[in-house]
Amino acid sequence: MATGTKRKGAPTPVAVRFAEDEARLLKMLTAHAKAEDRSVSGQIKHYARIGMIAKDNPDIPLGMIEDILVAQEESKAGLGEPYKFGVVEE
Questions:
Q1: 13 located within any domain
Q2: Which of 32, 43, 84, 86 shows a CA-CA span of 20 to 30 A to 11?
Q3: Residue 37 domain-assigned (yes or no)
Q4: Is 65 among the domain residues?
């Protein structure tokens, strides 16, 4: 591959720098990343994705956004079941 060319579909690395006064934010990101079994980079991407969805849908609560994302992944994994209208199960 020639120098300066990119492979199709290859991720573009982006450096994220935290200033000294943002050290607490970085520590919080690191703690949340560990708790959610992600890398710090993965946690930043996760928050960016949720933040973009929340900004595009200001009327939807954060908890509902997270539930929708989980439901989408469950559906992709084949865990979804069709809803039966008018059927009440007790």
A1: no
A2: 32
A3: yes
A4: yes
Q: How many alpha carbons fall within 13 Å on the CB side of residue 77?
A: 7
Question: Rounded to an integer, what distance in angstroms lies between the CA atom of residue 29 and that of residue 35?
Answer: 10
Domain that holds residue 51: 21-76
Give the chain's radius of gyration (CA, Å): 19
pTM: 0.72
Residues in the chain: 90
Structural domain tally of the chain? 1
DSSP secondary structure letters along 15-47 = -----GGGHHHHHHHHHHHHHTT--HHHHHHHH
Per-residue pLDDT of the chain (90 residues; tens, 9 = 90+): 556 666 788 888 889 999 999 999 999 999 999 999 999 999 999 999 999 999 999 999 999 999 999 999 999 999 988 888 887 776
